[in-house]
Design goal:
- The protein is α/β, with parallel strands linked by helices and about 475 residues long.
- The chain has 3 domains: about 130 residues, Gyrase A, domain 2 (2-Layer Sandwich), CATH 3.30.1360; about 130 residues, Four Helix Bundle (Hemerythrin (Met), subunit A) (Up-down Bundle); about 160 residues, Rossmann fold (3-Layer(aba) Sandwich), CATH 3.40.50.300.
- Helix content is about 45%, strand content about 15%.
- The protein contains 16 helices and 13 strands.
- It has a 7-stranded mixed beta sheet, covered by helices on one side. Strands 9-10-8-11-12-13 form a 6-stranded mixed beta sheet, with helices on both faces.
- Helix 6 runs antiparallel to helix 7 and helix 6 runs antiparallel to helix 15.
- The structure holds guanosine-5'-diphosphate (GDP) and magnesium ion (MG).
């Protein structure tokens, strides 16, 4: 393996459809012999096979036939699609075998392709090749992974915008502007002997231009704070003593019977997680065991896990029982609630109030408590709205604006901005233009790293290695 990734330019093969069974499964080959290897595994229908050489498959057209082993045994039937370079995903000759989605069949096809001269692909190797051949840049490769891993339709749309080059376009605009400033500066250094060297300076002066570019970089980097929610989603944990209706509420919010609801206290041992789509943000809802005194070892472990879930949560939904008076441990829970990241819910509002109206008024005022009935569904839409307001606060609501969802991009932008800030303060200190030029180049390099045109060494390790095989 060289520093950029796998070394050879041979033909690679992998199952590109998801693991497991399905109606259709796809084995993909890429490389100089992709079509030749695939054709040897394929007998087009409607011929005895003798005319295969005379009737080559047309690039981009699916051809129906049977897949056969080197020994001549039929494996399955399906389609062969060959694609001619350079207009393929990898930029190389590509062949796809569409068979039935049987893991055994697909594995057999891969083995036959390997016997025919292909090599099993490493994780992310198709994407790496696409990158190395300039078909996609690093941000687009990363976005493909995000697209595949999207849990909500909004996430998928945002990722697709990035696959289509939205982040690269935003970065390239800034980079072009910085490259021009750097080129002007370098020209003015080169011709510094000439009386008119200053004519290379941008209008308004170099420092003002560098500052404006830095601010643009910082603005783009700042969108990450909002964009990360779209990509990472949020974790919301239900907390409260046993039997107040946490699991019932969990099911209500998910509109399905997932958590086990029982009238016996302390049945939810493991935190149970499910994902909820709240205005496009994937919200992982966690139902915890009650934070009660553990009666046995398993109960103690459940409480520990519940505590951990609470620490990791972005938002807590604290649940109390409307139908009875507060207990001491519940008062203690109320004292620990951080209003910025918690919602207080008074459940069982279908029953007569046992909390006492004074207490209810106080909880409404102090904690903006919400009365709901998990059993009958009252107040659930309000709760959903309040939760969405909290979880989605600040997250972009539309895909119209470009925003970052990838921390690698944010970090490189911050490093580029830091380099420009150094240039600005060097200029203020009267440093020579050569120093400024170095800082501007440094800024350009960091921007170039975002799309992957700079720093190709080790890019396989940093970006592609974590992809799955077949991608
Ligand atoms: N009347 C009424 N009973 C409820 C409500 N929510 C839950 N319960 C009942 O309270 C008991 C405990 O509920 P569960 O969801 O298991 O509570 P958890 O221990 O906090 O998870 C069950 O018998 C539920 O049917 C509600 O809104 N109204
Ligand atoms: Mg429960």
């Amino acid at each position: 393996m060289n520093e950029a990734g796998p070394p050879d330019h041979g033909t690679i093969v992998a199952i590109s459809s998801p693991p497991g069974k399905g109606g259709i499964g796809v084995v993909r080959l890429s490389g100089p012999r992709a079509a030749a290897i695939a054709r040897r595994l394929f007998r087009p229908a409607g011929g005895d096979g003798a005319d295969r050489q005379e009737a080559p498959d047309e690039p981009g057209r699916a051809r129906f036939g049977t897949f056969v082993s080197a020994a001549g045994e039929t494996i399955d039937h399906g389609y062969l699609v060959t694609l001619a370079p350079p207009r393929t995903f990898t930029g190389e000759e590509t062949a796809e075998l569409w068979a039935h989605g049987s893991p055994a069949v697909l594995r057999l096809l891969v083995e036959e392709a390997v016997a025919g001269g292909a090599r099993p692909a490493t994780p992310g190797e198709f994407s790496l090749r696409a990158f190395l051949r300039g078909r996609i840049d690093a941000t687009q490769a990363e976005a493909i992974r995000d697209l595949i891993e999207a849990r909500t339709a909004f996430q998928a749309k945002v990722a697709h915008d990035q696959v289509m080059g939205r982040i690269s376009a935003a970065v390239d605009r800034i980079k072009d502007r910085l490259a021009e400033a750097a080129a002007r500066l370098e020209a003015s250094i080169e011709f510094s002997e000439e009386p008119e060297a200053g004519r290379f300076q941008p209008e308004g002066g170099l420092v003002a231009e560098v500052r404006a570019i830095r601010q643009e970089i910082e603005r783009l980097a700042g969108t990450y704070e909002r964009g990360r929610r779209v990509r990472d989603g949020a974790k919301v944990a239900l907390v409260g003593p046993p039997n107040v209706g946490k699991s019932s509420l969990f099911n209500r919010l998910l509109e399905e019977e997932r958590a086990i609801v029982t009238p016996v206290a302390g049945t939810t041992r493991d935190p149970i997680e499910e994902t909820l789509d709240l205005r496009g943000i994937p919200v992982t809802l966690v139902d915890t065991a009650g934070l009660h005194e553990a009666a046995d070892e398993a109960g103690a472990e459940a409480v520990r896990r519940a505590r951990r879930a609470l620490e990791e949560a972005d938002v807590l939904i604290a649940v109390l029982d409307w139908s009875r008076a507060l207990r001491e441990d519940e008062r203690a829970l109320l004292r620990t609630l951080d209003p910025a990241r918690s919602l207080l819910v008074l459940n069982k509002a279908d029953l007569p109030c046992g909390l006492g109206m004074d207490r209810v008024l106080y909880l409404r005022r102090r904690h903006a408590a919400l009365e709901v009935s998990a059993l009958q569904g009252e107040g659930i839409e309000d709760l959903r709205g309040r939760l969405a307001g909290m979880v989605c606060a600040g997250a972009p609501a539309s895909r119209e604006e470009a925003f970052l969802t990838n921390v690698r991009h944010r970090d490189l932008l911050q490093r580029a901005a830091a380099a420009l800030a150094r240039a600005e303060s060097a200029a203020a200190d009267g440093a020579g233009e050569e120093y400024l030029a170095l800082d501007l180049r440094e800024g350009l390099d960091r921007l170039g790293e975002i799309t992957g045109e700079v720093g190709v060494e080790g890019i396989y390790e940093r970006i592609f290695k974590n992809f799955c095989i077949g991608k």
